[in-house]
Amino acid sequence: MALTRYTLRQLEAFVSVAEQRSFAAAAQRMGLTAQAVSQLVAELEAVLGFQLFERTTRRVGLSSAGQYFLGSAETVLRHVQAADSAAADVRNRAAGIVRVGAPQVLAGTAMPAAIRAYQAGRPRVVVRVKDLPVDLLVDAVVAGDVDLAVGPDRPTGEGVQRVPMFNSRWVLWCAPTHPLARRKKLRWTDLRGHALVAAGRDHERSVAQMHVDAPQDARVEPVDVVDNVSTALGIAAQGLAATLAPAYVAVTARPLGLVMRRVVDPETVREVCLYRPTVRTLSPAAEGFAEHLSQWLPGWPMQDE
Question: Tell me, what's the pLDDT at 92?
Fold first, then answer.
């Protein structure tokens, strides 16, 4: 028997009459006439091939076959109601899974705080954070490995839209005992002769671009490049080197006892952006979280000290 041979409305009419023990009461619940409800039940009986009710002038009772079938009909309606509720949640961005990529510091600080704020109103939205190197953020969005990404400015192709969120200055982080900590502001020339460690090739390239017009003997190059900014900050905390990083890493750097010093002439600002695909449609949950990030990230208190 094809499932399409009877309808949900027919099942609803049957269950309503079974619960109300009255076609008139069932009709009132469904917003129909008693004749319309009777017709729906008759159509269902014709498809099923057996009688659902025993009708008398005084009462309406379930037949033995109707009693047996009632549980299955109620189960179908419960599942349909659950599916309808789930569809409403998705439609209203109240449920779903969102995958967000971010570099280590943002993945461990800004993203959890943003998720907590979002889930306060939409607890059934699950947001999963994937920490990624800055160089891989755009590629992960293109490949569909993540729905969204948040991180420093990177070039994008036609498949990804970059939306600026906030700016954060590039600064020097060093131990309080470091010679450069004695100054409130630093020039690039002040960094010569001091060991610097870069966090990833992205940081290394960024530092090089900051003073690309400087004479060769005035340029600053790191003595080492590590994979993660937490490693660079740990090295700096022990006074083994200093590191250049955006000011928003303060949430990780401050607990290590590091101090921040501005580097000027020129002072460089790093733009943190939201990356989203343009070649595919985001799910309602991902679209909702993207809108939340667009409003929440610019006010993140650690964005720039």
Answer: 60
